[in-house]
Amino acid sequence: MHLLNPFRMNDWDNRTFFWAFQAFQVAFVAVVCLSLVGYHIPIAREVLALLYLTFLPGLLVLKALRLHNLGTVETTLYSVGLSLAVLMLTGLAANVVYPLIGYARPFSFAILFITIVAVVQVLFYLALVRDREYAGASSAGAEISIPPPAAPLLALLPFFAIIGTHLRNEYHMVTLLFLLLVLLAVIGLAVGFDRLIPPSCYPLAVYAIALSLLYHTSLISEYIWGYDIHHELHLINSVLVPGLWDMTIPYNTNGMLSIVALVPIYSLICDLDPVWVLKIIYPLIFALVPLGVYRAVEKQTNAKVGFLSAFFFVSFFTFYTEMISLARQQIAELFLVLTILVLIDKSMARSSRAFLMVTFGFAMIVSHYGLSYIYLFSLVPAWLLLILPEHLPSRIKGMLRGIPDALAHDPLAPGGAAPRPEVRTLVLPYILVFAILTYLWYSTVAEGTAFATIAGIGDKIWTTLFIQTHSATPAQGMQILTGQSATPLHSLAKVVHIATQGLIAVGLLAALAKRGRWRIEPEYLAVSLVFLLINVAGIVVPFFASSLNTSRLYHITLLLLAPFAIIGGITLYEAVAGRLRAISAVPFMGTAYQALSLFFVVFLLFNSGVIYQVVGDSPTSMALETTGDKPVFNGKEVQGARWLLSEGNQRPIYVDGMRWWLLLGFDPGHQRYLPANASLIEPNSYTYFGTYNLVREDIRLEAQKNTVTTAMYVDAGLFVENQNRIYDNAGSAVYYR
């Protein structure tokens, strides 16, 4: 019996595709209608709506573009990316058009449901018309093969994370989460040592590891946790409550459709609180980013290099800590990875490639301004790197030809023994279109605040470097590198991090020098070189990295630079092995892949906090450490914040540096930081305390020193003297002065 692969529906014959699509859509509409009349089937609406929104629109676009035989991984990635783009554009169009024809609440369930179903039906019609001559895949590629024995275990990994976080939230037990992280490390070793997990399972392993790491932190608490995500939630509710997106609110994030359109759509159609959309659905989507990294690297090298690159990418702590608090960047990174995949695909038709690159580029622009700016500013120098050798003056070319090996080969030219016609995918028209779309969107939406922000950062950098040179502010990255670590073990972890950057530099040089072996596409190499320079700028240029945080900047650059750490590791290993022939006799060092898997497993154990937790050395894990002061808030703290904001009366609310983020999610207009001098608290104001403040009797005071935030804890009692406690639920308290 042969089962068709549902992830490759666009490769099915048209008749099978037609009936399968209609059956799924009828089931989805029926379940939604049943829930509206009171017959709620547990989980059915949520699952069907998730699949309908996340996959079907993109599959229809792929079919309309007549893109087939892409493989399961690429078909899935492109389908999800195109679906998200369709949803965001649908939300934007609804918000603009419906008020003009009398519908004041375009972001309400009824009108949005009808609109999305209508859009999908139009795409369905276009797909069948444009692809009417397609007869189906000629091979068994569209069929499901028997999964290897390791597949069920890999598929269960995210469920271990779900159960582990439940035990942590309810009983403060972290044993299962600890075992999960150890198991993920073992899987990394198993791949390096060619045990248990065959290459056919690598994509599933990458996705399962990524989703497990995301869920082991995102599902902490029953409320969102982190920093920026609270403001994102506030903007989401500012759309859901009135049913309309006010695109004039002057916040950078208010111009991001990944927040103000995509989350409300998922919330309304799936009938989920937006908190759970951010905690469950967004990690499901974001876990596709390392899968895209794997596929992009695998296409240019091999499956093992692809797996280790993705493993390195997800092991860096920003992936499953800071990014949990940045929903808009999660979506934007998916579009960046998809753009990279299209960029290196030289076999795709030019029209399809252009459509996908512009679509993913625009979707990135409306998802996250910071990532879009970084990508835009990397395109021009990357393009110059590609075309400069072709446009050198003949005199200079002649002089260079007199130098041995000069211009003997272009280091950015395609590798491989057999020459092939050059296909340029990074072209000037694309860069101009991306730049124009960036300018138009950021200068008009949300009062142009996203455009003003980048101008302000540039002005700070220029002033510091060229005007106030006598009092130059050290860059955040440099302060982190030169700062004193908390303990010797943390110093060792810093050395491991620096070593990864050294491997990246070596790998880039090796990829340029040995183009015949490392067949990295020239466009990928050019953008990677610029990303390496961006990393260096984050260390030496004031205000450059601090605008995003150094760790986030490094995380972003790893989207392209991760494989060069693997290439660099292989190059160094082979250089050492060439001098020390006996190295193969050393345990666990039989091949470069074994040595690298061991190194990156250690990297994961440091980043996830497992090592610190075992030895009790200043634990850092968000999941394993349950007693420290973190931006993680319990139900009583949320309840107290809701009560306070409902009473409100537009009076100032004083709160410490950590609880400030919680109140930001309810109303960003009234909270203020507690001052170092308690006497400066205004009369007729409130002071909010969370659980940590009440139990530890401490408050967190923060100060900005150069580009680094410093914090200190002081006695909480000093700030509530002569104040009346007007609310107390044993987890949070409110005082009035």
Strand content: under 5%
Radius of gyration from the CA trace? 27 Å
**Which class of secondary structure composition applies to the elements?**
mainly alpha
Number of strands: 7
Low-confidence stretches: 399-408, 468-472, 585-589
Helical run tally: 29
Arithmetic mean of pLDDT = 87
Please estimate the helix content.
55-70%
The major beta sheet can be summarized as: 5 strands, mixed
Biggest sheet strand order reads 2-1-3-7-6
How many domain units?
3
Terminal Cα span: 74 Å
Shape: globular
Regarding quaternary structure, how should these chains be classified? Answer: single chain
TL;DR?
It is built from 29 helices and seven strands.
Please explain how this structure is put together:
It is a single chain. The chain is mainly α and 737 residues long. The chain folds into three domains: 6-135; 150-391 and 422-615, no CATH class; 635-736, no CATH class. It contains 29 helices and seven strands. It has helices at residues 14-36, 44-54, 56-64, 72-100, 109-130, 150-171, 175-192, 202-218, 228-240, 257-260, 262-270, 274-286, 288-300, 303-315, 327-343, 350-365, 369-387, 394-401, 428-444, 449-467, 476-482, 488-513, 522-540, 550-579, 592-607, 610-615, 635-647, 659-664, 691-696; strands spanning 653-655, 671-673, 686-689, 698-705, 708-715, 724-728, 733-736. The strands form two sheets. A five-stranded mixed sheet has the order 2-1-3-7-6. The chain has a two-stranded antiparallel sheet with strand order 4-5. The radius of gyration is 27 Å and the shape is globular.
